Fold this protein.
Amino acid sequence: MIANARMYAIDATTAAAWRVVLEWVGRRAGVPFDVIDYPAPQPLPELWKRSDLGCAFMCGYPFATSAPRPTLLAAPVPNPATFDGRPVYWTDLVVEASAPITDLHDAFGRRVAWTTEDSQSGWHAPRLLLAAHAKRLGAPLFSASIGPLVTPRNVALAIAEGRADMGPLDSYAHELLRLHEPALAARLRVIARTPGTPIPPLVGASGMSATAAARVRDALFAVGNAHDIAAAREALLLSGFAPVAPEAYEALAADARRADALGYPHIA
C-alpha cells in the first residue's frame, strides 16, 4: 500500500520527517507502506481515489463530500499551544507584513489568493467568513481572485512577492512555515482567523480491510510516545495522532452550504 503526506510536507525537511513517521507506522502496523512522492500540482483527488491507498492526508471538506468515503484512520495533533492539544485547525488570513492592511475591510478592493476550490482551509473556510461581508456590501469584495495556487506555501509566496494582497494559510502549515522557513514567514502578518474545525485526517482507501485499518490506527496512536521518531515529531511540530469521528467533518459541508445560501459561491 502507498502512503503520502504532501498536504503538510511544505519543504524537503518536512517531507523527509513525514517519510520517517509513515514508514515507522507501516512497520509497527505490519502493513508496510511505499511512501511515494506526489508533488504539486499533481491532483490530490486522484491520490485519494487510489485503491492501494494505505495512509495519506485528506482535506476534510472532500472527505465529507466523497462517495464512497475513504477509510478514516486518525487526525494529527499539532504541538503549538494554540492548538490546545486537539486535532483542530483554522485558516489564517495573511497579508504582507508591511502592507497598510489592518483588517478584512482594508483588504476589500485588493487581490485575494486561494489554493483550490475543494480545499477547506484555502477556499471554503475563508469563503464562509467573507460571505456575510459580500452580502452586506452587495458587490464583489476583491479586485482580483488569484488562483488556484494549490498549496499554502504558494499563497505565502504570492503575498510576499506582491502578486496578491491577502490569502488563506492552513494554520498547521503556517506553523511549519514559521519553523522551517522563518524568512518567508516573517514577511506575512495575520489579520483574521476563521473558526476552528477538525484538522485534515489521515485516510486509507474506501476498500481498506478493517483489520489493516485497525492496525494502522493503533500504530498512529503510538506515534506520540515513540522515542525513535522523536526528532521527526519535533520537525513536524507533532504531538501525535488522535481518533476522530467521520461525523465531525460533516460540519464542513454544512458550512459550505451556508456560504452558498448567503449568495457567495466563489471568492471574488
In short: Residues 2-79+200-253 form a domain with the D-Maltodextrin-Binding Protein; domain 2 fold (CATH 3.40.190.10). The CA atoms of residues 120 and 199 lie 10 Å apart. The chain is about 40% helix and 20% strand. The chain has two domains: 2-79+200-253, 88-197+255-261.
